[in-house]
Amino acid sequence: MPSAPQDERVMILAPTGRDAHVAEAILTEAGIVGQSCRDLSDLLSELACGAGAAVITEEVFRGGDIRSLSAWLEAQPSWSDFPIIVLTRQGGGPERSRQALSLMELLHNVTFLERPFHPTTLIAVVQTALRSRRRQYDARARLEALSAATAAAAAAQAAAEQANRSKSHVLAAASHDLRQPLQSLFLLTGKLATGSLGPSEQETVDNLGRALAAMKVLLDAMLDVSKLDAGIVAVSRRDIRVSDLLNDITASYKDRALQQNLDLRVAPCSAVVHSDSALLARILRNFVENALRYTRRGRVLVGCRRRGGHLLIQVTDTGIGIPAEKQREIFEEYVQVDNSARDREQGLGLGLAIVRRISDLLAHPVSVRSEPGRGSTFAVAVPLAEVPAAAVPPPPEPDAPQPWRLVLVIDDDALVLMGLVAILERWGARTLSASSCLEAVEKLRGSAALPDLIIADYRLRRGETGFDAIDGVRRAAGRRIPALLLTGDTAPDILRDARSRDLRLLHKPVSPADLRLALANRWE
After folding, report:
1. Is the peptide bond before 15 cis (omega within 30 degrees of 0)?
2. How far apart are CA 69 and CA 85, in angstroms?
3. Are strands 237-241 and 272-276 parallel, antiparallel or unpaired?
4. Which residues carry this modification: 4-aspartylphosphate (predicted)?
5. Burial 292-306 (b: 16+ CB within 10 A, else e)
6. How far is CA 39 from the centre of its chain?
């Protein structure tokens, strides 16, 4: 099928050459290209080359086989409705002629014109048919353009989703490979810190601890992105005193602000909002972290404003500001303002990407106003609670530490296993250590007591996982021993699987303080 009616020609078929020549002459005088055809076969050949309409006298259909023409019309694409004008004798219209009714069913888009007719009548009918045909092609062109645009958009979305999946897998793999050796360093540094060291050695260990802690912050940011992308972050909404959040910010950042010679001001606020305390605090901390990172002099102000049924919590700084064209980009991964040298002391550029994900999760819109050289204001809109501040119950107290005695440690990394055993024993625990489920079960059979706790790495040798090891030990023990799963892997499916099994999950590198807290708060 041609892309447009070729020359908008009108094919003319009449049993006598005179009738065809008369019709052709009338159309030619009106500037319409008419072309006579010898018979139906010739007509079909011309139609295949492209035409805008056809004029056929009724005599052609009397006793003739028009199945080939009907088949050609049926084979047209769905958008095509080829116009045919049938010249009839007086009384040959569909209201009086059974043949005309039959032609309407066979030819579909047919117009009957009784002879004799005025030449202008034929011209008007043909021009109407040509306009109708032209509109069909125009509509098809628009549909094809729309279809192409839709296909291109779908392809772009698929490519973006694939790129995001690939990025998540690379991020998870890189995070796992970095966390393994870092975990060993954490445990060995923790063991050194509890020993008898001279001032110089103690300073070295302290500096090493700070460096490891900074690296852990960067890796934890990667983990946060993976958790949010995996959709496994549980939201626990309750009524929260905003003053509690602001007091935490003051306590956490006042010393850092003083070290940077910045004036950190946190305006008091008595409002109560309804949100997830930990996730909302993460948004505000990221705002304050950014403000302190990019403000060289002046102040950082944290304040609140009521906006209808919401509270707008704002963090304003006098920092370097953000160009207008960058203000949407900064919420994407690894985008940083004024850090072309990729100074790792300024982070990875994941803070605001995490803010965007938490904002979407909580349905708390975030916004930014900024001017280069004058500073920025980041804000989050949080629903106000319906209860007065005095009625908000205090947050629950954490569970009291419980004693633990015998710990079974399963890890196929010799350095990590050695570090875990060393620090656990320094804390007074007895330990059993193994590198696989089979070895752990053997150690269990040779033990006079069952372990109070299992600590297992997720990735073990020969495709075995920590899930397998924990399940195997529990079966051998005949009881559901509490367990901690250590992993450096941030793949979303692993995070979801651990949550579905109700396992306590600790992500490498686990600091000695975090490990001790997890042990003290183990659950039955």
Report:
1. no
2. 14
3. antiparallel
4. 457
5. bbbbeeebbbbbbee
6. 62
Instruction: Return the SS3 of 293.
Output: helix
Q: What is the per-residue pLDDT for 120?
A: 93
What pTM, to 2 d.p., does this model score? 0.44
- Token duo for residue 361: 């999760």
Q: Which two tokens stand for residue 174?
A: 């890189």
Please state, in angstroms and rounded to a whole number, the distance separating the CA atoms of residues 354 and 290: 13
Q: What is the pLDDT of residues 34-60, one digit of tens each?
A: 989 988 889 998 888 889 999 998 888
Preceding peptide of 116 cis, ω within 30°: yes
| Residue among 328, 237, 221, 224 nearest 275 (CA) | 237
Residue 223 CA to residue 149 CA, distance in Å, equals 36
SS3 479: coil
At CB < 8 A and 24+ separation, what contacts does 164-173 make?
164/229, 167/333, 168/226, 168/229, 168/491, 168/492, 169/491, 171/222, 171/225, 171/226, 171/490, 172/226, 172/489, 172/490, 172/491, 172/492, 173/489
CA distance 223 to 211: 19
Q: Give me the mean pLDDT over the 281-302 stretch.
A: 90
DSSP string, 95-139: TT-HHHHHHHHHHSSEEEEESS--HHHHHHHHHHHHHHHHHHHHH
Amino acid occupying residue 321:
G
Residue-wise pLDDT for 146-155, tens only, equals 888 888 888 8
Chain centre distance of CA 283 = 19
- Which residues share a beta bridge with 465? 459
pLDDT tier at 425 (50, 70, 90 boundaries)?
confident
Interior angle at CA 44, CA 41 and CA 45, nearest 5 = 90
Token digits for 201? 């050695």
Is residue 370 within 8 Å of residue 321, measured between CB atoms?
yes
